[in-house]
């Protein structure tokens, strides 16, 4: 049986960032990833100030803030039904110099992976089952059984294995629920330059929300969110998804949007239902049990309407690393047993209210922008949400998750 201090399940944003946080406090983790390589589902990700603060705490080089990924500065939100357009401006650099930037999701994963020793990530490693082992003198271990027959013993197990997390299911967390909406995402390539005069453009109509954001002068990230209809059959072939968007779902959208979709790199086009976990399940559920816990989407799946899924996963990593680091400072090493469980409980206590709030805010943002055609919903959407609510939620995007302790 193999033995490791910490095992992390999942090599997504949460898993890689958590491994870096642990490395910086003196713990080498083993990351188990069921895929054959780094996955970049979603094509791009918007990083807000809270994400950049977390990346700073992790000590990740600022390759992602170069001119390759310029910040978003301005944009428009257009109501397709009324023709009304709201101009929006993104926050100027905050006191730390951070701005909102859309970047390639794969670039973020690669930047995180490069910070880890080459033998940290074990690909093609699928988790089969989990067990707890109570050893002598109060020490407890997590035993992980893999599909290939390998068994691994760890002082702590952290599930960063996404929305359909095996670790979350073992903890007894409720299964994420379908929001009644779906999302199509893709990346458009313009070899000669896209020539767009705004950084961000969004379109809303009854039951749909779409938009695009320029990553650089040649690449544009686009998305389309819609409400699920009974019996609706969404294709999963990228070419069919693209065709369905252009000829059906977005056929009445402006030509600027259709032009972007038309230039899609088919390898980046995906469709998926939007799932989330009820906030009360996050607050009241077992986010940790003994020396086992979860982070990222495994803990707090949310709809993408605030763009905080990946950002909050980076926060998780720093907070978890801080609590384990403080434990190492106290004991000079990571000791299996009750103290690890207590550190994980402190991590959960710090995170659960923060992420529950983000789940609620994301759901409400999606509901206001896509549901209802009555005068009240139009008033709520156009006169209140875009003018006021967006300012309130900007505070969440300035959140500082703190620093990692200095462990000698």
UniProtKB/TrEMBL annotation:
This is FAD-binding domain-containing protein. Residues 4-359 form the FAD-binding domain. It comes from Quercus lobata (Valley oak). Keywords: Monooxygenase, Oxidoreductase. The keyword Oxidoreductase applies. Coiled coil: none annotated. GO terms for molecular function: FAD binding; monooxygenase activity. Belongs to the 3-hydroxybenzoate 6-hydroxylase family. The lineage of its organism: Eukaryota, Viridiplantae, Streptophyta, Embryophyta, Tracheophyta.
């Amino acid at each position: 049986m193999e033995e490791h201090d910490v095992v992390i399940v999942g090599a997504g944003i949460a898993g890689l960032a958590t491994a870096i946080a642990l490395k910086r406090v003196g713990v080498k983790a083993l990351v188990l990833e069921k895929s054959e390589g780094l996955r970049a589902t979603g094509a791009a990700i918007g990083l807000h100030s809270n994400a950049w603060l977390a990346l700073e705490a992790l000590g990740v080089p600022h390759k992602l803030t170069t001119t390759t990924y310029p910040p978003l500065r301005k944009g428009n939100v257009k109501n397709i039904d009324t023709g009304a357009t709201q101009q929006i401006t993104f926050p100027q650099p905050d006191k730390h110099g951070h701005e909102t930037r859309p970047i390639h999701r794969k670039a973020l994963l690669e930047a995180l992976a490069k910070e880890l020793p080459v033998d940290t990530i074990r690909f093609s490693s699928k988790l089969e089952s989990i067990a707890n082992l109570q050893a002598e003198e109060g020490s407890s271990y997590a035993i992980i059984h893999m599909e290939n027959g390998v068994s691994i013993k760890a002082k702590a197990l952290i599930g960063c294995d996404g929305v359909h997390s095996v670790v979350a299911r073992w903890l007894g967390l409720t299964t994420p629920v379908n929001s009644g909406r779906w999302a199509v995402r893709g990346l458009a390539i313009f070899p000669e330059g896209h020539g767009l005069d705004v950084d961000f453009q969004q379109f809303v109509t009854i039951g749909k929300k779409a938009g695009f954001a320029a990553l650089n002068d040649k690449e544009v990230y686009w998305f389309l969110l819609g409400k699920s209809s009974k019996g609706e059959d969404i294709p999963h072939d990228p070419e069919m998804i693209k065709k369905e968007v252009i000829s059906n779902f977005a056929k009445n959208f402006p030509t600027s949007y259709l032009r972007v979709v038309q230039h899609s790199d088919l390898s980046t086009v995906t469709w998926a239902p939007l799932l989330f976990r009820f906030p009360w399940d996050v607050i009241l559920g077992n986010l940790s049990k003994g020396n086992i816990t979860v982070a990222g989407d495994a803990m707090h799946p949310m709809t993408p309407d605030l763009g905080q899924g990946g950002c909050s996963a980076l926060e998780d990593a720093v907070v978890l690393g801080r609590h384990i680091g403080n434990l190492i400072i106290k004991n000079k090493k990571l000791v299996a047993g009750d103290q690890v469980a207590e550190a994980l409980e402190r991590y959960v206590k710090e995170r659960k209210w923060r992420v529950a709030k983000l789940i609620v805010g994301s759901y409400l943002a999606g509901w206001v922008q896509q549901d209802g055609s009555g005068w009240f919903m139009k008033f709520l959407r156009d006169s209140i949400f875009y003018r006021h609510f967006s300012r309130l939620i900007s505070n969440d995007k300035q959140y500082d998750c703190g620093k990692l302790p200095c462990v000698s």
